[in-house]
């Protein structure tokens, strides 16, 4: 059985990896949307910054959902004790 510090460390590593994967996933999706045509922005750097910020915000929300879901599913095992 693992002690509390090891469990916390593994959970932290899992959460970091999941967050980064969700941000990259959202980046891959948002990069295919043509924001330049919708927003009439003259400089493409602003469009890239918008995509980066949106991918971080949406990816974080997606990762938070999965982290909460995994936590809740682990707590379900406590019902049957």
Can you offer a commentary on this structure?
The protein is mainly α. It has one domain. It has three helices and no strands. Helix 1 crosses helix 3. It is elongated, with a radius of gyration of 18 Å. The two termini are 18 Å apart.
What's the gist of this structure?
With 81 residues, the chain is an all-alpha fold. The protein has helices at residues 4-30, 35-39, 44-76. Helix 1 packs across helix 3.
Topology:
Elements: H1 4-30, H2 35-39, H3 44-76
Q: Count the strands?
A: 0
Coarse morphology:
elongated
Helix and strand pattern: HHH
Beta percentage is: under 5%
As residue ranges, the low-confidence spans are none
Number of H/I helices = 3
Estimate the mean pLDDT confidence.
90
Main pleated-sheet profile = none
Structural class: mainly alpha
How many domains? The number is 1
Question: What is the straight-line distance between the termini?
Answer: 18 Å
> What proportion of the residues is helical, as a percent range?
over 70%
Radius of gyration: 18 Å
